[in-house]
């Protein structure tokens, strides 16, 4: 069994010194445990946060432990009453070729599922469901309003924008290349801004959102958040889903500088956490499946071949060279 583990807490971009590989032998499993042969590993920005020793919604990854992440795989041994050899499962395990699980945070892929396994880490998994619940529930977005989405060509952003379009909203996406912006237009975004080639983001947002911003879906933080704050409508909502611009920061990150706009616009900041919606996952997955079948949702996955590439694939999330949901095929 190969594993990537946390050897030291990283500073900045994660190096192979902080997260090296090792061989690990699974000696035996106990009653109530099973062994999963991982087929796909989910590569998520949130993992960077779990490497920090800071209070959060989950305990930090302990030094010496395998890097935590979602995976999908096959049960190859089981002493667990609910799982049999051959079951296809997805859930929280780690960057490792085989995982031992006691069933915590583990789900079975239905035998009659028409979708490939990898979908359970992308569109039918946490990122698809994040987009779904954040837009349809937490953001308070209503038909006719304007949604501004950052990291819009990414996994969460691209799905969230399409759901908002279906609700009858104007949707503007911010992304880091002309190719990504072009793709967003093909999947229904009304307008796009390439933040890497735009000097004045505040003015560009004002042009793309002539009626102001009702919901800013923040995946990024930093300068884009500041520019969005200057374009909020009265009673706007800032949905705080992520802050990837600062995940690799080595110093405390100042700002947002335009925080006063929250007061000036009687706006609300709403934190979003996908784990608040666990009980509603099966129902939402059915809806997403239906939209997929009806051709109403498009999404991109970037599947990197080879377990050894987990760390390099992870670091690509932070320079934007990924195209859609990043997965590693073991
Ligand atoms: P993505 O597929 O969107 O990949 C990350 C993207 O972020 C990159 O492709 C890049 O796109 C963009 N990015 C990276 N650095 C910067 C930067 N400095 N400034 C602006 N954009 C940047 O990842 P996900 O869809 O998986 O995650 C998106 C966000 O959602 C993350 O912040 C993540 O933490 C959050 N999240 C939160 C959840 C929750 O429950 N709160 C659950 C799941 C995800 P580009 O080329 O456009 O720069």
UniProtKB/TrEMBL annotation:
<dbReference type="InterPro" id="IPR011032">
    <property type="entry name" value="GroES-like_sf"/>
</dbReference>
<dbReference type="Pfam" id="PF00107">
    <property type="entry name" value="ADH_zinc_N"/>
</dbReference>
<dbReference type="InterPro" id="IPR020843">
    <property type="entry name" value="ER"/>
</dbReference>
<dbReference type="InterPro" id="IPR036291">
    <property type="entry name" value="NAD(P)-bd_dom_sf"/>
</dbReference>
<feature type="domain" description="Enoyl reductase (ER)">
    <location>
        <begin position="12"/>
        <end position="328"/>
    </location>
</feature>
<dbReference type="InterPro" id="IPR013149">
    <property type="entry name" value="ADH-like_C"/>
</dbReference>
<protein>
    <submittedName>
        <fullName>NADP-dependent oxidoreductase</fullName>
    </submittedName>
</protein>
<dbReference type="Pfam" id="PF16884">
    <property type="entry name" value="ADH_N_2"/>
</dbReference>
<keyword id="KW-0560">Oxidoreductase</keyword>
<dbReference type="InterPro" id="IPR045010">
    <property type="entry name" value="MDR_fam"/>
</dbReference>
<dbReference type="InterPro" id="IPR041694">
    <property type="entry name" value="ADH_N_2"/>
</dbReference>
């Amino acid at each position: 069994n190969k594993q990537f583990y946390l050897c030291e807490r990283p500073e900045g971009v994660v190096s192979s010194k902080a997260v090296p590989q090792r061989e690990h032998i699974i000696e035996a499993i106990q009653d109530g445990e099973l062994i999963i042969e991982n087929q796909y590993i989910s590569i998520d920005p949130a993992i960077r946060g779990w490497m920090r020793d800071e209070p959060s919604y989950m305990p930090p990854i302990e030094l010496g432990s395998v890097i935590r992440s979602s995976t999908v795989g096959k049960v190859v041994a089981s002493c667990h009453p609910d799982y049999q050899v051959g079951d296809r499962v997805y859930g929280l395990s780690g960057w490792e070729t085989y995982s031992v699980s006691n069933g915590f945070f583990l789900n079975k892929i239905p035998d009659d599922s028409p979708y490939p396994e990898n979908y359970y880490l992308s569109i039918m998994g946490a990122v698809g469901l994040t987009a779904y619940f954040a837009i349809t529930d937490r953001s308070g977005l209503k038909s006719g309003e304007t949604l501004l989405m950052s990291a819009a060509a990414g996994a969460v952003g691209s799905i969230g924008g399409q759901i908002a379009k279906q609700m009858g909203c104007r949707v503007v996406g911010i992304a880091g290349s002309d190719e990504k912006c072009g793709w967003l237009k093909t999947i229904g975004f009304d307008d796009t801004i390439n933040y890497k080639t735009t000097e004045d983001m505040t003015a560009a947002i004002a042009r793309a959102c002539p009626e102001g911003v009702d919901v800013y879906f923040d995946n990024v933080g930093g300068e884009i958040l500041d520019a969005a704050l200057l374009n909020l409508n009265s009673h706007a909502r800032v949905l705080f889903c992520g802050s990837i611009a600062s995940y690799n920061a080595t110093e405390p990150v100042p700002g947002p500088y335009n925080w006063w706009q929250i007061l000036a616009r009687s706006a609300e900041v709403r934190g979003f956490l996908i784990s608040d919606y666990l009980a509603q996952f099966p129902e939402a997955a059915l809806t997403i499946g239906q939209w997929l079948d009806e051709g109403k949702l498009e999404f991109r996955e970037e599947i990197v071949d080879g377990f050894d590439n987990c760390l390099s694939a992870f670091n690509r999330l932070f320079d934007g060279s990924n195209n859609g949901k990043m997965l590693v095929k073991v």
